[in-house]
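This part of the workshop introduces the protein records we will be handling. The question running through the whole workshop is how a given chain folds. To make this concrete, we reproduce a full record directly below:
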Amino acid sequence: MAGMVTKGKYVYEWPRPMVTADAAVFALLDNEWKLLLIRRKREPFKDRWALPGGFVEIEEDLPEAVARELAEETGLTDIPLEQLRAFGKPGRDPRGRTITIAYFGIADKGRQQAKAADDAADARWFSIEHLPPMAFDHDEIARCAVTKLKQTQAYRRNELNVAADSEAH
C-alpha cells in the first residue's frame, strides 16, 4: 500500500545507501557574494563547517527535505532552491554509504538572517573567496555551487555594477 511505511526488516538482500539533501545558499552582502555554512554540533565532524542539510525522511520528496533541513538548521525559509547535482563518492560520510543531492539558491535581501538551530551550533555567511575547511566533501560541493553562481545573471549583474562603480571613482 503506497504511503504506508512500517518499521522493521526490509526486503533488500544487499545494503542500500542513505540519502541526504544539502543546500548551497548564497547572498550578496555588502557587495560581496557569501555562502551560508553551519558549524556541526554533533559527530561526525563536530565543530567543522558544513552546508546546511541532512537525511531525507522515508516519505519526503527531495525539495521538501532540503527546504526542511535549511529551515531547521538556519531558520531560512522560502529560498528558491534548484538541484545542483548528486555527490556519491564512497567514503564521503564515515557513518556509511551516503549519497547527497545538493541544491543551489540565492537568498534575496530580507531573507538573509540566519540563526543556528537543531544540530547546527552556529550559522554564518562566508566570503566565497575565503571558505573554511569543511566537513564531508562539502568543499567540493561548494566549489561546484560557486561555479554555478558565477554563471547566474545575479552574479554577472553585480560584477558589472562593481566594475562600473570602481571606474566612476
In short: The mean pLDDT is 92. Residues 153-168 form the longest helix (16 residues).
